[in-house]
Amino acid sequence: MSRNKRLQDLTIKDNFMFCAVMSEEENCTRFLEMVLGFPISRIDVSYERNMVYHPEYKGIRLDVYAKDQNNKRYNVEMQVKRDVALVKRSRYYHSQMDMELLAAGTSYEELPDTFVIFLCDYDPFGRGLYCYTCGMQCKEDASVECDDGCQTIYLSTKGKNAEKLPESLVRFLKFVAADVEQSESDFEDEFVGQLQKSIHNVKESREMGERYMIFEEMMRDERKAGREEGRKEGREEGALLARRASIFELLEEMGRISEELEVRIHELSDEEQLKVLHKLAAKAESMEDFEEEAKKVLV
To answer: Does residue 171 share a domain with residue 264?
Structure first.
């Protein structure tokens, strides 16, 4: 039975919805100002780059890409599933923005500041912070100026230091963490209310409904192509990756898997155990049922 989400079931943490909402310039501007703490008078969001499949990418990418009146560049990514290579990915995104600018004739001295923001529905570093801001720093002497204009910010919905952040950002992150029913509650925040209206408009839009159908079809084709490529190449690791991906795909509609179990499945290399977990994911009626049985397999 298909477990693909309907457009009506999406929340802002779903990539399609996040990019649709953040493609609205006012939403994107207010989000960036809230996170970065400085005013932005005008921003240009690359709408088609955000919402349209690019055949050169490995997989379907729906990042938010924008620039402001000072030519600063911003790349924002929703990150629901744990990615052990997240820090390296930030390096890649910064380099891609730089290469685009250099190809257009920009000199090194003229390269603008670039910001990569990961919005994570988990704690990427396990320190209980809502926000991790990272940039270049001299290891031997922190007073040495070595700012290269690149900054990466990791936001976490699992933070515990609300007193250290603006209330508006904490409320926004709680909104991101909410499920469909909870996300429609009153968060007593004007910006969250604006986002809720945008989400409602997306769900009521026939054009966006058609875009979502196309997106879902391409996702299915992408998964199918990946499975066919894995069989064709006959690579053991490819088969393991496909099996893990299928397990997480089946679990998506049942809620959030515990971080510990998610990591264990990502690291699991036993094909037979993965097959058993795949069957459990297909038959489970709830995430609790799956986790209870999965722990027995992984003993």
So the answer is: no
pLDDT-derived band of residue 231, with 50, 70 and 90 as boundaries? Answer: low
> What b/e sequence results for 129-153 when a residue is b if at least 16 CB atoms lie within 10 Å of its CB, and e otherwise?
bbbbeeeeeeeeeeeeeeeeebbbb
If asked whether residues 170 and 113 sit together in one domain, one would say yes
Report whether pLDDT(270) > 70. Answer: yes
- Any idea what DSSP says for residue 172? H
Element (H, E) at 133: strand 131-135
Average pLDDT over residues 16-31: 93
How is residue 58 written in tokens?
């490995």
- What pLDDT, in 10s, does the model give residues 9-21? 999 999 899 999 9
Report how far residue 212's alpha carbon sits from residue 10's, in angstroms, rounded to the nearest whole number. Answer: 11
Describe the crossing of helices 25-36 and 167-177 by its angle, rounded to 10 degrees.
120
Would you say 236 and 48 are in contact if contact means Cβ atoms under 8 Å apart? Answer: no
Which pLDDT belongs to residue 259? 82
* 109-113: Cβ within 8 A, 24+ apart: 111/149, 112/67, 112/70, 112/71, 112/72, 112/73, 112/149, 113/72, 113/73, 113/149, 113/150, 113/151
Task: Kindly state the tokens that stand for 283.
Answer: 């038959």
**Residue pair 74/32 in contact by the 8 Å Cβ criterion:** yes
For residues 190 and 223, membership in a common domain is answered with: no
Question: How wide is the angle at C-alpha 294 spanned by C-alphas 290 and 295, nearest 5°?
Answer: 125
Q: 117 - beta bridge partners?
A: 76, 153
**Domain span holding position 289:** 207-297
User: CA–CA distance from 64 to each of 102, 133, 134, 145 (Å)?
Assistant: 21, 19, 20, 30
Other C-beta atoms lying within 10 Å of the C-beta of residue 119: 24
